[in-house]
Amino acid sequence: MASCERNVVFDSSLEEKEVCLEPLHCSVQFDHNILKWNYFCGSAKTIKNSISMQMIGVLIGSAMFGQISDSFGRRKSMLVTMAGMAIGWILVAKSYDLTLFTVSRTAVGFFTGGSISVLNVFIMENIPKKHRMWINMAITWSPNMLPLAAMAWATGDWRSLALLNAIVCVPGLLFCFLCIHESPRWLIHCGKIAEAQEIMRREFGSSKEETVNDTLHKAVRNEYEMMLRADSQKRRYSFCHLFYTPKLAITTIVLAFS
């Protein structure tokens, strides 16, 4: 909110100490649901609770899709998360009260958290080490705040912004469906050697080049044998092992809130 009648400018730093006026004839920089549903002053705590629920959805999605991608593949998991985000944003735009808004935004957070966890692993498995850091820094929250602010300015209200977010998901969904292959490393880990070799042939050389075929075959076999040796020497881990010891649990919590 920018200001209300009688030239009273809203100061967000005052929180609940501000003089609460009935929001008539208010000018706004962005038409948000807080104004539509009259969540001001004491009732503003309800908005904060809604945001907390949305972030819980992000945490649960990150945890679940890490396991789902290990079981069903990176590509399928990314398709599900992007489709879920697109549908979730449409439901957000159709929300008529705070309860439905919270549920739909929590669903968006669930699939967003899943997308983050799967995408990071997919990048690690498909990009050379020297390019991993800058790509991980580029595909994250901070660099995308600028285009998101531009989208909010262009739309002017929360429903239109939600629909635009849904539209933005569509190109990524189509690109992943048409152009992205499954992670060869995941295929090798699952014992799908022939499929991994075929993907690597398409990426690195023609199927008629014997030298390329021999090199890829040896690389895939070596990777598979290394994974077999590693699996025979260590136990399988899950998300729960991040909290297996007090020291590891503290480290995980600190990193999560950093």
From TrEMBL:
PROSITE patterns: MFS. The keyword Electron transport does not apply. Residues 1-258 form the Major facilitator superfamily (MFS) profile domain. The keyword Calcium does not apply. Its main location: membrane. The chain crosses the membrane at residues 78-96, 102-122, 134-154, 160-180, 237-257. It holds the Pfam family Sugar_tr. One of its GO terms (molecular function) is transmembrane transporter activity. It is found in: Membrane. Keywords: Membrane, Transmembrane, Transmembrane helix. It comes from the Eukaryota. Gene3D superfamilies: MFS general substrate transporter like domains. It is a multi-pass membrane protein. GO terms for cellular component: membrane. InterPro entries: MFS_dom, MFS_sugar_transport-like, MFS_trans_sf. This is Major facilitator superfamily (MFS) profile domain-containing protein.
